[in-house]
Design brief:
By secondary structure, the protein is α/β, with parallel strands linked by helices. It contains 37 helices and 39 strands. Helix 1 (25-39) packs across helix 10 (306-315) and helix 20 packs across helix 29. The radius of gyration is 28 Å and the shape is globular. The two termini are 46 Å apart.
Length: 1089
């Protein structure tokens, strides 16, 4: 069937901010959709609130609405744009829920818009657990025994039928939010209560427990003429009980018998037909009982999912691209395979390699969170590796995570006590359980014993045992022969691991290996196991005979990506890498991308001329540089766009003789090493807050006494403020030093004077050694002390005078020149008592680059890439990359707000983790609001960040003494806007004295009053409060404040913890009450002069 010509315009619904359970895999799928639709001549309208994704750049759609993804806002967009169809299957659960909301509100019918990809009935059949169960039954499959419940009483009755342990799954949530396994009545109340709250339909499913069974997924596609292909099978190494997003997974499935695989395949095809996903991809999950082979269908996602991104990258089969073509009428046999150019998309991919995906967690950001892995997803990113065998792929995946704890180690001896402790821990799935398994097998514990405790399939345990056996051979004394090194490499050992086993340095091993001529070759991901020629150079390394890297004549630029997503280094850096690749390809260079993150646009096989899916370690990158240098001329490597990961490799690459393009490793070190940077500032007459460097606890206390408390302490060389704290006394400082010094043992701890209640400013600029282009000056809404990645910020800056702006520009020029920047630089300033302080400078792409680029219409990342290959800023002004003259100017008022994952984490006892912001970054993603006034932009940003401000109702206010004065006028305004105010005694007395009427409410610690008066926590739990303003007192979370904030988070009540945030919220509420929130595409904003 040819394309449906009745579709002239399509509204693509994006997935919004990066959250746990819904990361940038949807940015990747949505970007593909936009590119496909435009190539077909269809007008593309996009709604997505996320500024960090390349998808919301103006060139990817005809009309890009960076607006909240809610049915109300989307209806306004539909009314304005009148699309023929809506594509909602490529934006994750957010897009699906919005589409269902539009259908329920009658919007689709009212405007005559149809859903393509999957209709409402198909979505409901896949997502509604009861309907899905009947479908599974109808096609002859089996589901876990279950009971649907809508109240706690029904849940307690249901457990009587199913018994403990019982699985709790809420409907219509993503990443397993609100789900869990209850082992008794206490945990049932805790998990099912949260499940009822998180489900938009207040519906949860109780299921019999299948913990310990094997878990599989099949990625399936179907077209309008009922052709069905199985793109990929995926097997979880962790058994049932761990969310698939938190499990190490492998493709293709390795432990299924052919009979079992054919059964899963038949069930999948029958399910996709019966559910009625007429055009597109879906993901179906199964559990298999290892004892008797009983198969249970767990669930399906009637949309492109996280696993679809993995399956696409694992096979080279672009699921999102093909799903989009199917949605507009094509059939699988009409779509050409981009890689082979001769086979159609109806030709199922075949793999002659093994792919392993490993999750990356961020528990160190939430030290009081429960580290156990459950059915609620907690990982923040993932790495993928490709090898010719499972051990090779696994070892590469583990080193791709960039965590020394993730890599297998082989200690000369392990004490009995340690082994016994590890055996006890094995029963509970945690971030490093596989490493614990490897350690106990290394210590001689049997595979049977480990299987009985973990239920990890014995085949996988045997493979880990074989890795251990190989380590024993490598460790034996004697010469490092080429045969021994090659064998070690085929098992996946890195030079560093071989060096440790042989008590050598990594450098020695590398020199010996290259001297012996043992180097990797690069194989192609071709979808067809080398049956047809592959035309897209998408490579992975292996230690075999024949390389498939093709010669080339154009000079190449190698771009290092940012590795797995994590808090502090997310999709914003991938954005800059992709832009660099696009712009340098246009400029006539061959672009080569190295990255190991399957979720991103940078690892799409057509983003760059060549893609290497490899770990970002010095060894792996040097080998690729060597292979490419033999294939043709290499201009150099760009390390300043992918965040801290490539920056950390820059010096090692340069020492190995590799040309670093853009800012030099010496300049990077000058900005990052505090003492050296202090000298740069002193030389140009700029001021930094007083600081000292301490390598011992005593030294730190002496420095703090000299500077005066409060002080900000942190290890040097970190990204995302890891291990950073504001401390108010000697005791807190000593406690920090004892905890933090192992983060970077070679670097001392920094002690800075903390500027209380200063205004923080963020600047992104370009410098070419001669001229500066100021991209944007952002003002943080939260005062200094909140990590810049977690603070809301506004562009243009709202409270800065022209004189101050001039001083900021001059300081930026001096720093860029003093450091020696060639490309992007991000500088954080603080304004305190009219004095400008320099907090830090990062001579690289920052996480605000995409936001500034969208707010001003200037492609900063593209300009930076051009500067790094020697193009001066004057030329960029001339060719239209930068404005003809002057600096970047904000169009409208843009607000960036952080999205925080508090609702994903609980303490071990089930209570929430504290939702207080500080100098350690904890947000997973961000949203943007753009409008003509600050209030409207801020209100939009809060709606998008899942913390929509109320238009009316009750507000609870509790201010720390230092914040009372600053919060009084905002409280007064709220009262005049018709809100009822509640406050605890201290705040109520203060506000009463200033004529603001408040109702007094008891603290949680005071308990219920003698006449049954409720505490604030009771009011929150009963839904009587619509907004919480609670500023914490000093360091450490006082019990009352913590109880209030966690109760608010659990009930999804917006909770603001700074007075600056309070003032901004009041501005937003005023606009919401007036109903004055317009929608306008970014392309229109950027036309404004």
């Amino acid at each position: 069937m040819p394309r449906d010509t009745s579709i002239k315009s399509v509204l693509v619904i994006g997935s919004g901010p990066i959250v746990i359970g819904q990361a940038c895999e949807f940015d990747y799928s949505g970007t593909q959709a936009c590119r496909v639709l435009r190539a077909e001549g269809i007008r593309v309208i996009l709604v997505n609130s996320n500024p960090a994704t390349i998808m919301t750049d103006p060139e990817f759609a005809d009309a890009t609405y960076i607006e909240p993804i809610t049915p109300e806002f989307i209806e306004r967009i539909i009314a304005k744009e009148r699309p023929d169809a809506i594509l909602a299957t490529l934006g994750g659960q957010t897009a699906l829920n919005a589409a269902i909301g539009l259908y329920a509100a009658g919007t689709l019918e009212r405007y005559g818009v149809k859903l393509i990809g999957a209709d409402v009935d198909a979505i409901k059949r896949g997502e509604n657990r009861e309907i899905f169960r009947t479908i599974v039954e109808k096609i002859g499959g089996e589901s876990a025994r279950s009971v649907i419940c809508h109240t706690m009483d029904e849940i307690l009755e249901g457990v009587k039928i199913l018994g403990y342990p019982v699985v709790v799954r809420p409907s219509f949530t993503m990443g397993g939010l609100g789900s869990g396994i209850a082992f008794d009545e206490v945990s049932l109340h805790q998990i099912a209560g949260a499940g009822l709250r998180h489900s938009p339909t207040s519906e949860v499913l109780l299921e019999e427990s299948i913990i310990g069974w094997k878990e599989y997924e099949l990625e399936v596609m179907r077209d309008a003429t009922d052709n069905v292909v199985i793109v990929c099978s995926i097997e979880n190494i962790d058994p049932m009980g761990v969310h698939t997003g938190d499990s190490i997974t492998v493709a293709p499935a390795l432990t299924l018998t052919d009979v079992e695989y054919q059964r899963l395949r038949d069930l999948s095809i029958a399910i996709i037909r019966e559910v009625g996903v007429a055009t597109g991809g879906c993901n179906i999950q199964f559990a298999v009982n290892p004892e008797n082979g009983r198969i249970i269908v767990i669930e399906m996602n009637p949309r492109v999912s996280r696993s679809s991104a993995l399956a696409s990258k694992a096979t080279g089969f672009p699921i999102a691209k093909i799903a989009t073509k199917l949605a507009i009428g094509y059939t699988l046999d009409e779509i050409e395979n981009d890689i082979t150019k001769v086979t159609p998309a109806s030709f199922e991919p075949t793999l002659d390699y093994v792919v392993v995906k490993a999750p990356r967690f961020a528990f160190e950001k939430f030290p009081d969170a429960d580290p156990r892995l459950t059915t609620t997803m907690k990982s923040v990113g993932e790495a993928m590796a490709i090898g010719r065998s499972f051990p090779e792929a696994l070892m590469k995946a583990l080193r791709s995570l960039e965590r020394k704890e993730a890599i297998f180690t082989f200690p000369p001896e392990i004490s009995e006590q340690r082994v016994s402790s590890l055996l006890t821990q094995l029963g509970t799935p945690t971030e490093y359980r596989l490493q614990q398994v490897q350690q106990v097998l290394w210590a001689g514990i049997s595979i049977e014993e480990v299987f009985s405790r973990t239920k990890i399939d014995p085949w996988f345990l045997t493979q880990i045992q074989l890795i251990n056996d190989a380590a024993r051979v490598i460790a034996q004394p004697g010469e490092l022969t080429s045969e021994l090194i090659r064998t070690a490499k085929q098992w996946g050992f890195s030079d560093a691991q071989i060096a440790t086993l042989r008590s050598l340095s990594e450098d020695d091993v590398r020199k010996t290996r290259t001297h012996l001529g043992v180097r990797p070759v690069y194989k192609t991901v071709d979808t067809c196991a080398a049956e047809f020629e592959a035309f897209t150079p998408y490579y992975y390394s292996s230690y075999e005979e024949e390389t498939e890297v093709k010669p080339r004549s154009k000079p190449a630029v190698i771009i290092l990506g940012s590795g797995p997503n994590r808090i502090g280094q997310g999709i914003e850096f991938d954005y800059s890498c992709v832009h660099a690749s696009f712009t340098l390809r246009e400029a006539g260079y061959e672009t080569i991308m190295i990255n190991c993150n399957p979720e991103t646009v940078s690892t799409d096989y057509d983003t760059s001329d060549r893609l290497y899916f490899e770990p970002l370690t010095l060894e792996d990158v040097l080998e690729i540089v060597h292979a490419e240098s033999q294939a043709g001329p290499v201009l150099g490597v760009i390390t300043q766009l992918g965040g801290q990961t490539p920056l950390g490799l820059a010096a090692g690459l340069k020492n190995a003789g590799v040309t670093i393009l853009g800012t030099s490793p010496e300049a990077i070190n000058l900005a990052e090493e505090r003492g050296a940077f202090g000298d740069v500032l002193a030389a140009v007459g700029l001021t930094a807050p007083e600081f000292g460097m301490a390598s011992s606890q005593m030294q730190a206390v002496e420095i703090a006494k000299r500077i005066g408390y409060p002080v900000l302490v942190r290890p040097s060389f970190v990204l995302g403020g890891r291990g950073m704290e504001i401390v108010y006394d000697d005791e807190a400082l000593s406690s920090f030093i004892s905890r933090a010094t192992d983060i970077t043992p070679d670097h001392p701890v920094l002690v800075d004077r903390f500027l209380d209640s200063a205004i923080e400013i963020d600047v992104d600029a370009l410098y070419d050694g001669n001229e500066l282009f100021l991209g944007g000056v952002m003002e943080h809404i939260e005062e200094a002390g909140i990590h810049s990645g977690d603070s809301a910020c506004v562009l243009p800056a709202m409270t800065i005078s022209d004189l101050q702006s001039q001083a900021i520009r001059e300081a930026t020029v001096k720093i860029a020149e003093g450091v020696g920047v060639r490309g992007l630089i991000n500088i954080q300033f603080a304004l305190a008592a009219e004095q400008l302080y320099v907090l830090e400078a990062n001579p690289r792409a920052s996480r605000t680059v995409p936001f500034v680029s969208k707010a001003t219409g200037v492609p900063l990342a593209k300009a930076a890439a051009r500067i790094s290959v020697g193009v001066p800023i004057a030329q960029l002004h001339g060719d239209g990359t930068l404005p003809a003259f002057g600096d970047g100017v904000a169009k409208g008022v843009s607000v960036k707000e952080a999205v925080l994952p508090w609702n994903r984490f609980r303490r071990s006892d089930g209570r929430g983790v504290d939702a207080v912001l500080g100098p350690e970054m904890r947000s997973t993603g961000e949203v943007m609001g753009i409008s003509s006034t600050f209030g409207a932009s801020y209100a939009k940003s809060q709606i998008s960040a899942f913390g929509s401000l109320p238009k009316s109702g009750s507000v609870f206010i509790s201010l720390a003494d230092k914040d009372k004065e600053a919060g009084a006028s905002a409280a007064s305004t709220l009262s005049s806007l018709g809100f009822r105010l509640f406050a605890t005694v201290g705040t109520a007395d203060f506000l009463d004295a200033r004529g603001v009427r408040t109702a007094r409410v008891r603290k949680a610690s005071e308990g219920i009053g003698p006449y049954g008066e409720k505490t604030i926590v009771d009011l929150l739990n009963s839904g009587e409060i619509n907004l919480v303003i609670n500023t914490p007192v000093g360091r450490g979370t006082r019990a009352d404040g913590w109880a209030i904030r966690t109760a608010a988070i659990q009930r999804s009540i917006p909770c603001i913890t700074t007075t600056a945030g309070f003032n901004a919220a009041v501005a937003g509420i005023k606009v919401l009450q007036s109903g004055d929130l317009d929608v306008r595409p970014i392309q229109d904003w950027l036309k404004d002069v």
